[in-house]
Each structure stands twice: as C-alpha cells, then as structure tokens.
From TrEMBL:
It is an enzyme of class 3 (hydrolase). Its EC number is 3.4.19.12. The gene is USP50. It catalyses: Thiol-dependent hydrolysis of ester, thioester, amide, peptide and isopeptide bonds formed by the C-terminal Gly of ubiquitin (a 76-residue protein attached to proteins as an intracellular targeting signal). The lineage of its organism: Eukaryota, Metazoa, Chordata, Craniata, Vertebrata. GO terms for cellular component: centrosome; cytoplasm; nucleus. It holds the Pfam family UCH. This is Ubiquitin carboxyl-terminal hydrolase 50. InterPro entries: Papain-like_cys_pep_sf (IPR038765), Peptidase_C19_UCH (IPR001394), Ub_carboxyl-term_hydrolase (IPR050185), USP (IPR028889), USP_CS (IPR018200). It comes from Ursus maritimus. It is found in: Cytoplasm, Cytoskeleton, Microtubule organizing center, Centrosome; Nucleus. Residues 37-355 form the USP domain. Belongs to the peptidase C19 family. The keyword Cytoplasm applies.
Length: 366
C-alpha cells in the first residue's frame, strides 16, 4: 500500500464546526434509504465525513464489513480501527437515523495519529491514505510473493503480486510500471510501484479535462542535470527518459487532483474547472495491453473542497447503490442531486469503479 505522507503541521481552522442532526420536518416524511445517512461534524471533521461517505458508497467494501467477513481476518494487535469502521458502516447502512456520529472511528484513529483529535483542518487525501493503510494492516493475509505474466509477457508489462493481501488491496490497489531508458546507451530498466491513490497534475489554471490530467501524468519525462539517474551499464549518471504505465488496474481507482501548490512559503490553490465523465472513463491508453481487462470506469463518488489551503470545507457526492441516485453529503445535511450537478469545479478526489455496484446487504427487519 501507499506510504502515508509525513503528517502536515497545520494550525488553520476549517470553516465548519460542530453540528447536530438538523430538525427537518420535510425530511422526516421522506423514506430513509440505506447508505443515505449524514455524519455529525465533531469540530472541523468535514474531511473525515467526506471520506467516510465515499468509502461508504463502495458496496463491495461495505458488504465485507456488514456481513462480518472482516472479523475472521482481523489482526489481534491492530483491530481497533477496522472494528470502529465496521460500526460506522453499520450505523450508516442498517440504522434508522438521519445522521450518526463517527466519534468511535475518530477516537480509534486518533489513538494512532493524535493529529486527528485536534480541531484543525486536515487534508482529505492524506486522511484517506491513512485510513486505507490502517484497514489493510488490520485485515491483511500473507501469501507467497510471485510474478504474474512471465513467459510471453514482456518484462515491462509484468505485474508482481504482493505477499500481503486484504479487501483493501483487492479493491483499491493498482500497480504502475516505470520504463527507465538511459539516453546514452539506450538500455532499459523497469520499476514497479503500487498505489491506492493516483495523484494527477493539473496542466491548466483555467479549464481542462481529466484526460488532460492523465495524459500529463503518463507522458514521457526526461530527467536531466541534477535529476539524472545512475545507469548500471554506463556506470555513471546519465540523462534518462521515464514513462509510466498501469500494469495492474484496480477495481476502484481513486484520482487525487493536485489543487494545492506549495513553493517555499508561497501557497496557492488551483481552481481549474476539470471536466470528468460520469460514465465510460477510458483508461485503455495508459494500461499495459496485456492487462486491459477493465479499461472503462464509472464515477461512484467525489470529494469536493471549498475555500483555500489554510481553511475551507469538504463535502461529498456519492451514488447510492440502492436508489441509483446521486446524493450530496455536507456533514449532517443530505440531499438528492441530479446527475448534472455532480460535475463541479471544486472536485478534489474522484472515485471510479470498473464494475457496477450491487446492494451490499438487505436491511434487517425489526
């Protein structure tokens, strides 16, 4: 799994604070659907609520926890976070409340990372990586490490099966293959790197598409001067051409749009309007031909960020597998939205799935 980034030292406040379930008489007369549940803000925890809503929209993950399958995989020495996650998913999917509190999950993660207990802004993408890593650590199983695709498959397209697997790696983990060519002797070497979140550069400050971001990420890059790489054949540092491709496409691929730019003491947020498709995102150009099993993806969730780097607010758009409708989640405030409202200039994280989601579990009858 991805290595968690060094924890950011931030003292900025979010623009949100504590909230409680809204007293909405109109909402009380409407049916309460599974998975359409608000989350209380515990004091600048909008980043956590947005991520929990997006993960709660991934039906295979939800079903794994609601069915109790996670219990047999739990590692005894690190089960607290996974157990707390299961409790929150159960409340969101099987409860009858319009909103629930994620306090038990924050407390479990806060025991490991005290920064989450502070009432200061945290980055949703960094929080997501910590959550996925902790769930993986709690649920991982060990397997013999092997390389898949030997024989007729060229080395550049081979993928390595990790010796640790979990529901997290099965759903979210992909693999990049880097082709590294020395521009002097033209020898090639290859490097594999796993990912759970793919951070994409934004090539324009005004307007672009998700495909533009992908093309920018996967285009060949030439490393010169201080960035030269040591060539084992030339036995010295040389200018190098590097190109990435996907050798293992995950079932759920998460794109992080790199809107926050920090250069020394200068901070800015790119407010580029990025157009992203709701259906049929084609990743064929970026996947090694041998492994193009799931080249097209459909959007299932979005994390939005409003405001600036030193303050702001997170919300989520999620497609519900029961109603097949999109919903806006703003802490405790939940509302159905049309498909046309899912495309916004505030998107920060995009969750795509290569397979349609089924209803994770039927609601228990009282």
């Amino acid at each position: 799994l991805s290595s968690p980034p060094a924890w950011p030292q931030r003292s900025a406040e979010c623009t949100d604070h504590y909230d409680t379930c809204p007293a909405n008489e109109a909402a009380e007369n409407q049916p309460h659907f599974q998975g359409v549940t608000g989350l209380r803000n515990l004091g600048n925890t909008c980043y956590m609520n947005a991520i929990l809503q997006c993960l709660g929209s991934v039906s295979p993950l939800v079903e794994y926890f609601l069915s109790g399958k996670y219990i047999t995989a739990l590692q005894k020495d690190c089960s607290e976070v996974a157990t707390a996650f299961a409790y929150v998913m159960t409340d969101m999917w099987l409860g009858d409340s319009e909103c629930v509190s994620p306090e038990i999950f924050r407390a479990a993660l806060g025991n490991l990372y005290p920064a989450f207990m502070k009432k200061t802004q945290q980055d949703a993408q960094e929080f997501l990586i910590y959550v996925l890593n902790e769930l993986h650590e709690a649920l991982k199983k060990y397997h013999r490490r092997r390389s898949y695709g030997k024989g007729s498959v060229p080395r550049c397209c081979r993928k390595v099966i990790a010796n640790e697997t979990s529901i997290i790696t099965q759903l979210f983990e992909g693999q990049l293959n880097y082709s590294i060519m020395c521009l002097k002797c033209e020898s090639c070497t290859y490097k594999n790197e796993v990912f759970t979140v793919l951070s994409l550069p934004i090539p324009s400050e005004c307007e672009c598409s998700l495909q533009d971001c992908l093309q920018c990420f996967f285009q060949q890059d030439t490393l010169t001067w201080n960035n030269q790489i040591h060539c084992s054949f030339c036995e010295t540092k040389q200018e190098t051409a590097v190109r990435a491709s996907i050798s293992k496409a995950p079932k759920i691929i998460i794109f992080h749009l790199k809107r926050f730019d920090i250069l020394g003491t200068m901070k800015r947020k790119l407010r580029t309007d990025i157009h992203y498709p709701l259906t049929n995102l084609d990743l064929t150009p970026y996947i090694c031909p041998v492994f193009r099993k799931h080249p097209k993806y459909n959007l299932c969730a979005v994390v939005n960020h409003f405001g600036d780097l030193d303050g702001g607010h997170y919300t989520a758009f999620c497609k519900n597998s029961v109603t097949q409708a999109w919903y806006s989640f703003d802490d405790t405030r939940v509302s159905e939205i049309p498909d046309t409202s899912v495309q916004t200039a505030t998107a920060y994280l995009l969750f795509y799935s290569c397979q349609p989601f089924s209803i994770p579990i039927k609601k228990c009858k009282s």
